[in-house]
Amino acid sequence: FIQMLRSAKKRDILQLLRRAPQEMCPFLVEAVVATQSVASLAALSDFLDFSKEPKSLLETFLYAAAFSPRPSGELLHLVLDKLDGKQLAPEIWETGIVAVGSLVGKLCQQKLCGLQVVERGVETILRGLRDAEEEPKVVIHLLALGNARLPETIPTLLDHTEDGPTAVTAAATSALQRFPTALISSKVKRVMRRIFHQKRRSYDKTCRLAAAEILLDNHPSPMDVINILLATSEMETEMSTFLLLKVQNSLR
Q1: Taking residues 33-59, what's their average pLDDT?
Q2: What is the spatial distance between Cα 167 and Cα 177, in angstroms, rounded to a whole number?
Q3: What does DSSP assign to residue 152?
Q4: Does residue 197 fall inside a structural domain?
Q5: Quick count: other Cβ atoms within 10 Å of Cβ 242?
Q6: Up-side HSE of residue 33: CA atoms within 13 Å toward CB?
Q7: Are 211 and 223 in contact (CB under 8 A)?
Q8: What phi and psi values does residue 179 have, to the nearest 5 degrees?
Q9: Is residue 25 part of a domain?
Q10: Count of domains in the chain?
Q11: Where's the Vitellogenin domain (predicted)?
Q12: What is the pLDDT of residue 163?
């Protein structure tokens, strides 16, 4: 079916989308996203009206875009255009921002970071993070940065790790876990030590575990391992057991 769509014209794909029974629409939208031809994306752009379509269909489109294994710049362009300057339902907007992060990350893996649309996607996430005043919005943008995994955003993530609310610290730390070892610098490790050992304030156990994992998964120093092991004696059983197993696995 996707092979057929790849050779179809825009008007034929659009007609197919508009005439399809309602229960078939999610399948067709996923197939058109998978096709990623110029004609299919143009048809999808005309078909999807973010101010009118059912939330479920819009989420289907955004999830299909986010999970696309090798997305094109045109697909990211379509997602950004559909999100830009519109009054959207909160859950659609949140899914859209996370999808933008995923698309940016995958395009950069394809060595396409220099595309103008990728730069636009990064700026959309960073601007949204700067403007976000409510905790849930901050968290969503941090999740998007975690999906993008761009080296230049690590300082931004570090800025949100130590002093914010628990949900923000957890999201920023979780985002840092997704970066490869080569990008986990000594500065990142210093911040993770402060979180794990609670140098500045108390942290939720989820945040502490994520910080410990970053230290243990990225060329840990002997002193880091020793200090984490010493700290387990003061932790609840579940948390200490997890960390002990983590150290044992590293030793193996």
Answers
A1: 91
A2: 15
A3: G
A4: yes
A5: 15
A6: 28
A7: no
A8: -85, 150
A9: no
A10: 1
A11: 1-233
A12: 81
Q: Give the global pTM.
A: 0.90
Q: Look up residue 141 and give its two tokens.
A: 């943008």
Distance of CA 62 to the CA centre of its chain: 13
Hey, what are 119's tokens?
A: 């730069």
pLDDT digits (tens, 9 = 90+) for 141-189: 999 999 999 999 999 999 999 888 999 999 999 999 999 999 999 999 9
Q: 54: how many CB neighbours lie within 10 A of its CB?
A: 11
Between CA 207 and CA 235 the distance in angstroms is 14
**Separation CA 177–CA 214 (nearest Å):** 6
Q: Which of 52, 40, 35, 51 is nearest to 13 (CA)?
A: 40
Tell me the residue range of the domain where 165 lies.
159-251
Which two tokens mark 165?
A: 């609310």
Distance CA 211, CA 227 (A): 13
CB 135 within 8 A of CB 89: no
pLDDT band with cut points at 50, 70 and 90 for residue 250: confident
- Residue 14 domain-assigned (yes or no): no
